[in-house]
Amino acid sequence: MIDKRVYDLLSRYLSGVIIEKELNELKQEVKLTGDPELGVYLSGLWEEYEKRDTAHEEVLEEILQHITQQSRRLCRRLFIRRLGKTAAILLLPLLSVLTVYFFQSPSMDGLAGELVWRVEAEKGQQATVLLADGTKVRLNAESSLSYRQNYGIKDREVELMGEGFLRWPKKKKNLLL
User: Fold this and answer.
1) Are 166 and 135 in contact (CB under 8 A)?
2) In 3-state terms, the chain is what percent helix, strand and coil (to 5)?
3) How far apart are CA 145 and CA 129, in angstroms?
4) Over pLDDT 90: what percentage of the chain?
């Protein structure tokens, strides 16, 4: 029967962690041990090594799958980041140009001027309005005041229905009712 020490030395040798002193000891034991005993011992080690090797392969397969999943996630993240950067690079100048165009376009001024604001004072109520040029309007009951959104930019035109009191800054002139 093979000694436990020989078994341990052979295991260390197969694992690649044997030191020189143990290797010399193993050589001596192999010389002293007969072939049939050594064959039984080596076949036992072989079977044990195969079990460890398949378990090792399963672990490696799991690690490979994990690495593959992580790399796919990373690739998706990088793709989304690159797509976002590209979209920002393309949209930022486009939006800047469109903003300048729409705010400086004379056709947009005409549209803004067409919008009409209307303030009404209901029966038994009074309302006060401060216009863009500093003109203050106080409406009595059942009265209304209408003016364009661009009031005070080009002209100062208002429409008063009913009774109201206007107080405008002394600097401003030419209020058209």
Assistant:
1) yes
2) 60, 15, 25
3) 9
4) 21
Taking only the tens place, the pLDDT of each residue in 107-157 is 554 555 578 889 998 988 999 998 888 889 999 999 999 988 877 777 778
**CB-based contact 131:147 (threshold 8 Å):** yes
3-state SS class at 157: strand
The reported pTM is 0.36
Q: Which pair of tokens denotes residue 149? A: 């959104």
Q: Residue 119 pairs with which residues in a beta bridge?
A: 145
Cα–chain center distance at 53: 44
CA distances from 74 to 12, 61, 80, 82 (A): 41, 20, 10, 12
Confidence of residue 168 (pLDDT cuts 50, 70, 90): confident
Q: Which residues, in sequence order, are bridge partners of residue 144?
A: 120, 161
Give the torsion sign (CA, 76, 82, 83, 85). Answer: positive
User: For the segment 63-102, what is each residue's pLDDT rounded down to a tens digit?
Assistant: 888 888 888 898 899 999 999 999 999 999 999 888 888 8
Angle between helices 20-32 and 4-15 (to 10 degrees): 130
Euclidean distance between CA atoms 143 and 161, whole angstroms: 6
- 18: CB partners within 8 A, 6+ apart: 9, 12, 26
